[in-house]
Design the sequence.
């Protein structure tokens, strides 16, 4: 069965084969190393002229790739760790995300920036963070989060080959070895109807043959995998029936596909690996409350307000886990609280 | 270009910028502006050498670059006034221009890797198009330009970095901020450079001609350091230099005086009167143009 890593790797290889305008740039992406997380393996061997290993110059590489995109190429830049994205912030915020609008729609910047985010590997404070929230809500930039539902390589391929605007493509490190989800006897995977044709799909999980859901979980990336595990446990062990919505596109945000589910369940739990304060979940919940009639019970699961420690028990304490999700669901379901 | 044509272009930029400064207090322009007074020979000298498809990436002090590139004064006035007819429909204003192969942005240094990437893109297409990127001495404090120089040298980007050293960054003289020399910043990356201490447009034109040829033929980067003088304030009223210092610069280094000496007084007067009319007409035309429509959400 295909893993997320294989899916992404095949997509990069395939896009180089199919699209003569595609270029890969990044640090240590050449074979035999093939990138710190091996996502670019095989590419430089087969397309030596279009896979460019770079100096350690994140802002410079993004700038160069932006120039290439403005002049018609489809560059893809790997930023080795998502923790290094603050180094590219000026290029993203003040340059590439603005150009199309600022130049009055006269240019396009078809650039994809891929980067692994997330912790649980003991890498410590500057190699474990979930920083995509810094780039959410930025006009002109799409933020896409890979998941292990539909093949993430298809999403990546589309973004590189056909997207006209810049994309920040987030890959949680723990997704890489996971197999792509196949529908099972237990779970049904639906595409939310509004977005069924979208290249950045919103997925919905429901438990097969279950009564109507009482709670809606919303999550993305690797946390969606933990939420999926929680969904099954709650159904089989506690007879709490939830549904889980997993967006691929985090920003820009269209709340409408989410409304129907929460209109029925009246309970919503957002689950993210970034820290809680002023985060993704806060915006999702605000939009839901603005658009739906009360009563709605709300809660968020997220990381504690701390840098990510290197020591495993400390890291485990800071980052949200399966137990935190189960607890939050039980609280939301408890009429006395 | 002949002497008359050079003078016409120099005077067009001068007249445009003076019109901008004269009219700022009247509330015609929103925001701020950075004028090119005193530095006109740089843009005219370098950009008079452009081939048709060459790309120019300019900075916050870009009006002179835009006009020397061939942009119309009217389109620039309209952009500065925030009118829908401006080069970017009023969205960008003074520092954010795009027209044909001319681009600018208002962040110090941020354009330098992008311009470098453009040069690499054109090289990859196999054509002879090159890029000219303008940066100032103040920008030498920004780290990202050195990332770009390194990549340009290593990957042989066909780009000319035109470094206009007007010796002052907003209000801070270069002696207070710059360690080492400007040229060593290029030589550290094995980027060959030319260094000129002149406001003579003809000298700049001739040197730029051979250095642009070098970039085009070798398909590799070069630096073009122009020691120059900014006569006006950084933006509008923020000049803290003694008046005597400015008037001395104007006496010794005015590109219009230097090049004007090659023309007859009659020829100069004739060109000036024509350009004045052109700039006034462009200004008035832009002033009568509509503001962009505000799009309201349905």
Sequence:
């Amino acid at each position: 069965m295909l893993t997320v890593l294989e899916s992404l790797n095949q997509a990069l290889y395939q896009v180089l084969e199919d699209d003569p305008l595609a270029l890969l740039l990044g640090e240590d992406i050449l074979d035999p190393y093939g990138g710190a997380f091996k996502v670019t393996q095989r590419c430089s061997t087969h397309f030596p002229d279009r896979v460019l290993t770079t100096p350690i110059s994140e802002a410079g590489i993004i700038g160069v790739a932006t120039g290439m995109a403005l002049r018609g190429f489809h560059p893809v830049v790997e930023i080795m760790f998502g923790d290094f994205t603050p180094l590219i912030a000026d290029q993203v915020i003040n340059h590439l995300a603005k150009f199309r609008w600022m130049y009055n729609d006269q240019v396009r910047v078809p650039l994809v920036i891929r980067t692994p985010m997330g912790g649980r590997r003991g890498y410590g404070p500057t190699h474990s963070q979930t920083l995509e929230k810094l780039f959410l809500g930025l006009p002109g930039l799409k933020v896409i989060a890979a998941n292990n539902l539909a093949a993430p390589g298809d999403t990546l391929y589309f973004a590189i080959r056909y997207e006209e605007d810049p994309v920040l493509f987030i890959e949680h490190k723990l997704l890489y070895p996971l197999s792509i989800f196949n529908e099972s006897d237990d779970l049904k995977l639906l595409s939310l109807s509004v977005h069924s044709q979208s290249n950045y799909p919103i997925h919905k999980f429901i438990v097969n043959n279950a009564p109507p859901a009482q709670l809606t979980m919303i999550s993305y990336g690797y946390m969606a995998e933990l939420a999926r595990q929680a969904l099954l446990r709650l159904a089989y062990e506690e007879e709490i029936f939830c549904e889980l919505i997993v967006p691929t596109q985090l920003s820009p945000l269209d709340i409408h596909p989410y409304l129907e589910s929460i209109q029925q369940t009246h309970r919503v739990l957002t689950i993210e690996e970034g820290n809680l304060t002023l985060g993704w979940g806060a915006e999702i919940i605000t939009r839901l409350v603005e658009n739906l009639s009360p009563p709605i019970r709300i809660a968020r699961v997220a990381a504690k307000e701390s840098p990510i420690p290197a020591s495993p028990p400390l890291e485990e304490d800071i980052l949200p886990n399966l137990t935190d999700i189960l607890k939050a669901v039980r609280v939301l379901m408890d009429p006395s609280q | 270009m002949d002497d008359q044509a050079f003078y016409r272009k120099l005077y067009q930029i001068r007249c445009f910028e003076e019109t901008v400064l004269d009219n700022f207090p009247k509330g015609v322009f929103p925001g701020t502006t950075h004028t090119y007074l005193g530095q006109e020979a740089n843009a005219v000298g370098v950009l008079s050498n452009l081939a048709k498809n060459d790309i120019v990436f300019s900075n916050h002090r870009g009006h002179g670059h835009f006009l020397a590139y061939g942009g119309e004064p009217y389109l620039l006035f309209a952009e500065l006034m925030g009118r829908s007819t401006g080069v970017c429909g009023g969205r960008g204003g003074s520092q954010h221009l795009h027209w044909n192969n001319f681009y600018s942005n208002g962040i110090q240094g941020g354009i330098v890797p992008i311009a470098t990437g453009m040069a690499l893109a054109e090289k990859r297409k196999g054509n002879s198009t090159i890029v000219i990127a303008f940066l100032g001495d103040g920008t030498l404090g920004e780290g990202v330009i050195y990332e770009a120089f390194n990549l340009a040298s290593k990957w042989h980007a066909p780009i000319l970095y035109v470094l206009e050293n007007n010796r002052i960054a907003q209000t801070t003289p270069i002696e207070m901020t710059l360690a080492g020399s400007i040229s060593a910043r290029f030589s550290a990356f094995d980027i060959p450079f030319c260094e000129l201490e002149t406001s003579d447009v003809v000298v700049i034109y001739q040197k730029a001609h051979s250095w642009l040829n070098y970039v085009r033929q070798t398909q590799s980067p070069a630096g073009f350091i122009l020691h120059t003088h900014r006569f006006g304030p950084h933006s509008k009223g923020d000049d803290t230099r003694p008046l005597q210092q400015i008037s001395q610069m104007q006496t010794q280094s005015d590109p219009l005086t230097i090049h004007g000496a090659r023309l007859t007084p009659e020829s100069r007067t004739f060109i000036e009167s024509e350009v004045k009319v052109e700039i006034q007409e462009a200004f008035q035309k832009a002033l009568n143009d509509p503001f962009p429509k505000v799009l309201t959400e349905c």
Chain B touches chain A at residues 55, 87-89, 91-92, 96, 98, 103, 105, 107, 110-122, 124-125, 143-144, 147-148, 150-151, 154-155 (CB under 8 Å). Residues 199 and 255 of chain B are 5 Å apart (CA to CA). The mean pLDDT of chain B is 96. Chain B has eleven helices and nine strands.
